[in-house]
Amino acid sequence: MRRISPATGVRGRVAPPGDKSISHRAAIFGALSYSGIEVENFSPGADCASTLRCLKLLGCDVERKGGHVRVSCEVLREPEEVLDAGNSGTTARLLCGFIAGAQDIFAVITGDSSLRRRPMDRVARPLLAMGASITGREHGNKLPLALRGRRLSGGEHILPVASAQVKSALLIAGLSAQGSTTVIEPSPTRNHTELLLNFLGVPIESEGNRVTVYPCCDLPGGKWRIPGDFSSAAFWIVAAAILPESELLIEGVGVNPTRTGLLSVLKRMGLNIEMREKGTSGGEPVADILVKPSSLEGTKVTPDEVPLMIDELPILAVAAARANGLTEVRGAVELRVKESDRIRSMAIGLRKLGVDIEELSDGWKIRGPANIVGGRVRSYGDHRVAMALAVAALFSAEPVEIAGDACVDISYPGFFDVLEGLSLRRENS
Ligand code: S3P
After folding, report:
1. What is the average per-residue pLDDT within 22-37?
2. Residue 256 in contact with residue 191, Cβ under 8 Å?
3. What is the DSSP track for 302-365?
4. CA of 329 to the centre of ligand 1 (A)
5. Tens digit of each residue's pLDDT (9 = 90 or more) over 369-409
6. Which tens digit of pLDDT belongs to each residue from 94-137?
7. Is the C-beta atom of 311 inside 6 A of ligand 1?
């Protein structure tokens, strides 16, 4: 149980942890490379540790000293144990793509109780179409999944869901397939896989919603610094915007436009922000972000904006609770199959705190500004729900208790200490 006291502002500087999505990809590309990858600022979260653990079991060389990680692989080995992806959908789905094409390797992938509930057929189906051998619960829709690596054939895949995890799994499988592999997404999703392959010098063609890779048996190695995670920065962006005495510099953040949909929406709502560009790292744009208190107005988030801010919707709901008027989010049904059903978890949590929030099948209607008076809420074991509710707690009149706070370790170990350090308290609290 975590008790969060009200604050009047968040002030100072903060550097969010290394990007989780890029860290997973860096590790997996290291596993496809004899010379290997070497990165600084690898995500400290439990999810990326799951990816490293699975790659080790597959015979890869993994060295880690804090944020410094080196991964390379001479020969893959059939793992003696089940590969446990823990809470990490990205680990499970990207590894499916990796193992499907790893000839003769038999592996079973499982995860924790949350991950075992999440759909896997979105990745299993197109991999089966490439010739993969995959079976599992619910005809291959749920973990545990058993895979036997095979020689795959590329092909063209039209994805029914906008999912960077599925796109990336197919591109990874495509690197060891015969012929080219093309993925067509219904709308653009995060393009870290594409940028990283390009940075490493692997031929990749990307145009609009269509991306193509070619067979490449040994990936070139590379060395770079992983930018700060925009999804972790998002909590500080909203905290600084909604608390009246804030002034916060968020340093070294990855600002890839396929991730920063939240900024476009918050700017439309009235966000007071200054971006200071810092060049690129590993092919990804990086910036420092200065945020000051902002007077926010409600807005409509449309379905096409959702994939570009999919992980930031819980914290957007908190900003909406503080904004004047109605905010409506639609087309976000994917939130129901994340670490928790995020539409429901946030609706229950914010309503309990006194926010006027209506749960829709594919989003919310939120009427602000809310007066939060304190209370007790649950994270539902979901790191982003826990952190979003913690930010909501900062503008409460009384302390808020969050049950199940330890899950923040999935993406942001130390989050609550940073929150404490940045928070300006009322004089008598
Ligand atoms: C991720 C993609 C998104 C996101 C997840 C990380 C990735 O999932 O929610 O946290 O690293 O590719 P989907 O691709 O399933 O939308």
Report:
1. 98
2. yes
3. -GGGGGGGGGGHHHHHHHHHHSBEEEEE-S-GGGGGSSS-HHHHHHHHHHHTT-EEEEETTEEE
4. 19
5. 999 989 999 999 999 999 999 999 999 999 999 999 999 99
6. 999 999 999 999 999 999 999 999 999 999 999 999 999 999 99
7. yes
Question: How much distance in Å is there from the Cα of 87 to the middle of ligand 1?
Answer: 13
Mutate to test the pocket of ligand 1, among 163, 230, 387 (most ligand atoms within 8 A of CB): 163
Q: Is 87 in the pocket of ligand 1 (CB under 6 A)?
A: no
pLDDT band at 428 (very low <50, low <70, confident <90, very high): low
- Which candidate, 268, 277, 280, 275, places its Cα nearest to that of 305? 268
Q: Give the confidence band of 426 by pLDDT, cuts at 50, 70, 90.
A: confident
Residue ranges of domains in the chain, CATH in brackets: 2-17+227-425 (3.65.10.10), 20-225 (3.65.10.10)
Pocket test for ligand 1, best of 21, 90, 163, 341 (most atoms within 8 A of CB): 90
For residue 277, how many C-alpha atoms fall within 13 Å in the half-sphere facing its CB?
A: 5
Q: Which atom of ligand 1 is nearest to the CA of 94?
A: 12
Query: What is the distance in A from the centroid of ligand 1 to the CA of 369?
Result: 30
88 lines ligand 1 (CB under 6 A): no
| Residue that is written with structure tokens 């596993």 in the block | 31
Please write the tens of the pLDDT for every residue from 183-199.
999 999 999 999 999 99
Rounded to the nearest angstrom, the distance between the alpha carbon of 112 and the centre of ligand 1 is 17
pLDDT at 427 over 90: no
**pLDDT over 80 at 86, yes or no:** yes
Tell the residue number behind the tokens 């860290």, with chain if given: 23
Q: Report the 10 Å Cβ neighbour count for 151.
A: 12
pTM of the model: 0.98
Dig out the tokens for 370 from the structure: 């809310």
Q: What's CA 159's distance to the chain center, in Å? A: 19
Cβ neighbourhood burial of 292 (10 Å; 0-12, 13-18, 19+): middle
In the residue annotation, 218 being an active-site residue is answered as no
H helix or E strand, kind and range, residue 234: helix 230-242
Amino acid symbol at 273: I
φ, ψ for residue 39 (rounded to 5)? Answer: -130, 155
